[in-house]
Design a protein that fits this description.
Layout (H helix, E strand, L loop, with lengths): L4 H9 L22 H28 L2 H10 L3 H6 L6 H13 L3 H15 L26 E3 L15 E4 L10 E4 L4 E11 L6 E13 L2 E8 L1 E2 L1 H9 L10 E3 L4 E5 L4 E7 L22 E2 L7 H8 L23 E5 L17 E6 L7 E5 L8 E5 L14 E12 L18 E18 L2 E8 L14 E4 L1
Antiparallel strand pairs: 1-2, 2-10, 3-9, 4-5, 4-8, 5-6, 6-10, 7-9, 10-11, 12-13, 12-19, 13-14, 14-15, 15-16, 16-17, 17-18, 18-19
Helix pairs in contact: 1-2, 1-5, 3-5
């Protein structure tokens, strides 16, 4: 799909990559021998690129609607005039410009949104049949190989917005990383296979694992991630089915076929109904990185009865819906996903820590009686808490004023056997998790400034009575 030049230049300047997945990372250190002429040529190319970028930004601002210009100037006083006067925008400023152009209804950007969606679907168009959902013939793994399942909707580590896939966990098997078979749940066209050799959160080199995206009809698909090895048959197709540019052109698999292996880590699994998007307030916020997210669907709707029954026995969430949920956006309230102003929404500025500008308030994935919070700029794995305080996020409106909530650590335990090491011991029928609250480690102050704009500040290791107002450490977030 041809991308519009303006978007490309803005996107590149913001530090983005032409990837549709967070797992596309560099796998090797590149080495090269650079001559003086090479350096000169590269410098000239860079200068030309910067001139071209400047010209396109100026052109975009000259042609922008008054609404877009007002949006920019509201967030960056005299920003439009500053750029038109010759200033070269920095990364955050470019992100802000893009957001305002994107949200203003500008025709070029509306067309680009459509183009991004078409580009994703174009990876399988012409190679699929039919429309609508299908039933799944079998489980992604043999039932006896599964220890337990975790639902959609967790927030943990780099996943600050509720996770759009479930997890299949097994006990340590004798085959190590290749202990268990991964099976095609139904006939499918695998249109994308990606390799990850750099950990997303650790940024450290690791043994390779694979992401597999597939469709079962032209509007209904699924995916596996953290597959530790491809089956010999699929690996052969992956290496041989290439176009003249060396890009993978896809491969067909049959229901029940072994397509890979997994062991010593979870298997990620998600289902996506491209005819039925979820009601996110700003679905375009996810398109450049995870275009599938807004189409997330409940896989338990499509498994055969016996398979569904056996899988639900392994599910650690006892509340309905058993799969959990990922969309908590409610306009005019605190509830849902938020992105720091100027950080390019879901994609972020720094792809190695794209979640830094993310923030979310959702019901806990295990016990929806609790509200959980994810704060991307805090230390990874120390950025998720249960919040305590009133009113609940759904009841906070514009004009409600500043709200202070306790940030509480928590643990998960088996409800009918609290002392069980549920993550490592064999699952027993009836095992479901509950939430146990820990210590108050700080507070978060939030104020809904406008229906889609809020101010946030985190206060760690302090007393509530010492918190009087926002400081210069506060941050502003939008939908």
């Amino acid at each position: 799909m041809k991308r519009f030049l303006i978007f490309l230049l803005l996107f590149i300047t913001c530090g983005g990559e032409g990837s549709t997945s967070e797992v596309r990372e560099s796998t090797e250190e590149e080495t090269s021998t650079t001559t003086v002429e090479d350096t000169k040529t590269n410098t000239e190319k860079k200068d030309l690129q910067e001139v071209s970028q400047d010209n396109e930004v100026v052109k975009a601002l000259k042609e922008a609607s008054e609404e877009a210009k007002k949006c920019i100037n509201d967030k960056w006083p005299n920003g439009v005039e500053t750029v038109l006067g010759g200033h070269t925008p920095g990364e955050n400023e470019m992100g802000l410009i893009y957001e305002c152009l994107d949200s203003s209804g500008d025709k070029n950007f509306e067309m680009e949104k459509q183009g991004r969606d078409e580009e994703w679907r174009g990876m399988w168009e012409g190679k699929c049949e039919g429309t609508g959902p299908v039933m799944f013939n079998n489980s992604p793994m043999k039932i006896e190989d599964i220890n337990f399942l975790m639902p959609y909707g967790q927030i943990v580590g780099g996943h600050i917005t509720p996770i759009d896939h479930m997890y299949f966990y097994s006990l340590k098997g004798s085959g190590g990383r290749e202990a268990y078979e991964v099976l095609a749940i139904q006939d499918a066209f695998i249109f994308n296979i990606e390799t990850r050799e750099i950990g997303v959160e650790s940024q450290q080199k690791q043994e390779a694992d694979y992401r597999l995206d597939m469709v079962h009809t032209c509007t209904f698909g699924s995916y596996f991630d953290l597959v530790t090895k491809l089956s010999p048959e699929l690996e052969k197709k992956w290496k041989e089915n290439r176009n003249q540019n060396g890009d993978f052109t896809g491969a067909y698999v049959k229901a029940g076929e072994v397509i890979g292996y997994v062991g010593e880590q979870s298997l990620d699994f998600g289902v996506y109904n491209y005819s039925n998007p979820l009601n996110f307030i700003n679905p375009e916020a996810y398109e450049s990185v995870e275009p599938w997210k807004i189409y997330t669907d409940d896989p338990f709707l499509y498994f055969a009865d016996d398979v569904r029954e056996n899988l639900l026995k392994k599910m650690m969430r006892g509340s309905e819906p058993r799969i959990g949920r990922i969309n908590y956006d409610v306009d005019g309230t605190l509830s849902g996903n938020w992105f720091e102003v100027g950080t390019n929404f879901y994609e972020g500025i720094d792809r190695s820590k794209y979640w830094d500008g993310h923030f979310s308030l959702s019901l806990n994935d295990i016990d929806p009686n609790y509200w959980q919070i994810g704060i991307g700029f805090l230390e990874v794995y120390e950025n998720t808490f249960i919040i305590q305080g009133n009113p609940i996020p759904l009841e906070v409106k514009v004009g409600s004023g500043k709200q202070i909530y306790e940030l509480v650590t928590f643990r998960m335990f088996v409800e009918n056997n609290p002392g069980k090491d549920w993550f490592r011991e064999p699952h027993e029928e009836g095992d479901t998790l509950s939430i146990g609250l820990g210590n108050v480690v700080g507070y978060v102050m939030l104020e809904l400034i406008d229906t889609q704009l809020l101010q946030l500040e985190v206060f760690l290791n302090t007393k509530k009575e010492l918190i009087k107002d926002f400081t210069d450490q506060s941050r502003t977030y939008e939908r």
